[in-house]
Amino acid sequence: MVARAQAAADTDVCVLVDAEIVLLPEIVNALDRFSKVDGDWFLVSLSRNVTDPRYQLADSGSHWVQADGKEVSFTELQEIPAEWSSSEGSDRGLIMAWNNPSSALHAGVLPSFLYGRGAQNWWLAHEVLSSEMRLFFDASSLVLGLYPESISAMQHVMASSKNGRLPSVSWEYGVNHHLAAVYGSYCCRSPARRFPMLHRVVKQSEDYMLSKVDTLVSSDFFISKQGNAHGVDSLRKKQNVSLSGYLHGCSSETSAPDLPYSLSMLLDLVADENGSVVLGVAGKSYRDMLMSWACRLRRLRVTNFLVCALDHETYEFSILQGLPVFRDPLSPTNVSFDDCHFGTKCFQQVTKVKSRIVLEILRLGYNVLLSDVDVYWFGNPMPLLYSLGLATFGAQSDEYNETGPINLPRRLNSGFYFARSDNATIIAMEMIVKHAASSGLSEQPSFYDVLCGENGTNRIGEDRCLEPNTNLTVVFLDRDLFPNGAYKGLWEKRDVRATCKELGCFIIHNNWINKRRKKVHRQMVSGLWDYDPTSRQCLQEWSAQNDGAIPFV
């Protein structure tokens, strides 16, 4: 939202405010006065937290009334005691405004806050102050807005466990605090910088007056009606709210949060309305490809995904990238960085982790779409896969011949499949895991041999199998919609994206090619890459001018 505001070239002043805040007329006067200041500025104001039973919002929402129904004047609202403002550590009721959007707000690097929630507001305010690129004003005493606690308290309680702000004692709050410290100066004073100046704004008569909080000099300032800065000898002391305690009261050292999150807790957070999740599994050798995969899902608004980290390095990396991740303690420890491709012993070990994790998730009552991170998504296939029905297992076919059966022996690809949490699928997955554990091969042959029978004895027609013990139907997915890396030579096409669009592809698998470097190169040169490893940010091909619309990309 801030980036889109910064891209609005025709805007003089940007205001970022929570939807539940009731803005008062004073904000129009204040912003009009501040717009006359010569230079870049950033204004922050804590809204007054209305908890007094004397003041309630009228049913119409147009004005405030006392307990007896009498309308409350603007002057009375301004006199709400300071102790009724937002509690320390909360970003509720925070109003931020700045001018000249074409100029940078701060010199920091934006963290990938976990799940997009947490300490962003305080981080942004602190970075603007610390970067010393703009005049920083604390206008909390002006009472620019009211935060109606009586209206939003229940919403806050309900949202904090799912999609809202996070309580200060939560695991995610700690992670966000850690992210902010790693990526910027949040709660950390940098000795390399001059101590920043925070100007506190108060109102006296029709003038807006400023004093310097945490100042290195003794002079005070005020803004006259003409918007010019002048020195004054003193400032009448008034009871007001200050951000200085929030912005400079933190410890100089920020410790890492208490980790990890359990698998069951993550599943409860990310699963969609059908109880389905998308699972990606990756180790340190594929972490850039993991991020490109995750960035792509985010752009497609696929939010029900989670990551299984095969090693501690990938786990920590994923935490810092804001991914919902859990660590598999039974993963092999000797995962090679460059030599973990198809056919290697490393590959065999890693693939057997995937089926075991999928089985664990199925037993917890969730459906699983297992997608290798070298699978590029053009659209969300979940609705189509979910429509296959109960006791049906949908998997990608690895057959490369364009004609003939696609369910031939050993042509089931275990890098992209959808498994429902029903008895038939769970029993079949238990058989697969057991078969793979005693095999000297990867898990992929075990899928076919168990579900379709050795040499395809359980095949039905040209695109199905029927596992006889569980009556589980296996559907080999249409290759035009779910092509493998060798089908129709799609990866060799001049415009892979356009060709796949014509076919109606949901995904394309970057397989049938050995070596990690070759995979990454093929995906990058084809334009099917969504991550910049240098900045550790998702690539943004579409600007704010597209109004957030996502075309076929």
Automatic annotation (TrEMBL):
One of its GO terms (cellular component) is Golgi apparatus. Pfam families: Nucleotid_trans. GO terms for molecular function: glycosyltransferase activity. Residues 302-522 form the Nucleotide-diphospho-sugar transferase domain. It comes from the Eukaryota. InterPro entries: Nucl-diP-sugar_transferase, RAY1-like. One of its GO terms (biological process) is cell wall biogenesis. This is Nucleotide-diphospho-sugar transferase domain-containing protein. It comes from Zea mays (Maize). The lineage of its organism: Eukaryota, Viridiplantae, Streptophyta, Embryophyta, Tracheophyta.
